[in-house]
């Protein structure tokens, strides 16, 4: 008999605690996991012909300005370096997205690595989201500086993360799976004053 396995998020054991903290914050803060997102690490020459064809085939243009993001049809591209991006898609689309990337670049040199299982994603939303993150992050998170369409590789509570600003009151935290439970515990602790105050 063939064995089957069920995929389990590294934050599966935190779901109830995150939901309870959100409820107790009375709208000031929402912390939730976005499980099993597709994450592909892409290395490609941004000046090559493949990059030019990329948007039409993959559905999103590759941002070339440092620390920016671009969103397309079900796909998001996060700038990580001059020739590196993190492609983010819905759960279970890793194979299809990688095939679209290869179709776009043809014979051009490219590296596409599926890092989906290596990452966990947490969303912090609400008027206190940036305050909580500021407890453990040294970059300026004010919406005037780090607004929608921006991303940053940085440290949060000594854990390496990618922060993605989805709006004035919403920031995604992409963290290595091995740090996910530690970071969720840290976020819950950092949010205590806002949860207790509900404001």
From TrEMBL:
It comes from the Bacteria. InterPro entries: SoxG (IPR007375), TrmE/GcvT-like (IPR027266). Pfam families: SoxG (PF04268). This is Sarcosine oxidase subunit gamma. It comes from Pseudonocardia bannensis.
């Amino acid at each position: 008999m063939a064995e089957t396995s069920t995929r389990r998020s590294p934050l599966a054991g935190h779901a109830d605690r995150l939901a309870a903290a959100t409820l107790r914050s009375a709208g000031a803060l929402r912390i939730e996991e976005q499980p099993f997102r597709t994450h592909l690490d892409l290395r490609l020459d941004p000046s090559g012909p493949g990059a030019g064809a990329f948007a039409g085939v993959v559905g999103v243009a590759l941002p070339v300005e440092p620390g920016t993001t671009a969103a397309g049809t079900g796909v998001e591209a996060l700038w990580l370096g001059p020739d590196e991006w993190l492609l983010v898609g819905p759960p279970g689309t890793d194979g299809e997205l990688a095939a679209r990337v290869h179709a776009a670049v043809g014979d051009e040199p490219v590296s596409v690595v599926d890092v989906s299982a290596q990452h966990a994603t947490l969303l912090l939303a609400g008027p206190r989201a940036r305050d909580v993150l500021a407890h453990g992050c040294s970059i300026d998170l004010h919406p005037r500086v780090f607004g929608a369409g921006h991303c940053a590789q940085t440290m949060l509570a000594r854990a390496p993360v990618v922060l993605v600003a989805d709006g004035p009151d919403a920031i995604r935290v992409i963290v290595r799976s091995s740090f996910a439970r530690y970071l969720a515990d840290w976020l819950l602790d950092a949010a205590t004053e806002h949860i207790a105050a509900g404001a």
